[in-house]
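Fill-in record for TraR/DksA family transcriptional regulator.
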Amino acid sequence: MTDLSARKAQLEARLAELESRLHKIDSDLDAPVSKNWDEAAIERENDEVREEIGHEGLKEVRAIRAALTRIEDGTYGECIDCGEEISPERLEAVPYAALCRKCAA
């Protein structure tokens, strides 16, 4: 398995990046809406996209925080359903994976 300190640093860096993006999304969503109807409609469509990106970002933040907790308690790399080892390839692709390939399917 990858060095846990390196994996932790990777997860913490991604978490910081996501939190920064989510803060920017919140700021953008709080911005005043144009008084021009056409522009306001376009802004509202853009806000819907930002909201969806924000929801996905929040899911990833929760998954990363859970992975960091698993690192701290010594269960990182174990499937939370079956207890089997999560393959190194899966953890390389999805560092916050909580399920092995079989349980994820």
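KEY FINDING: Residues 52 and 58 are 10 Å apart (CA to CA).
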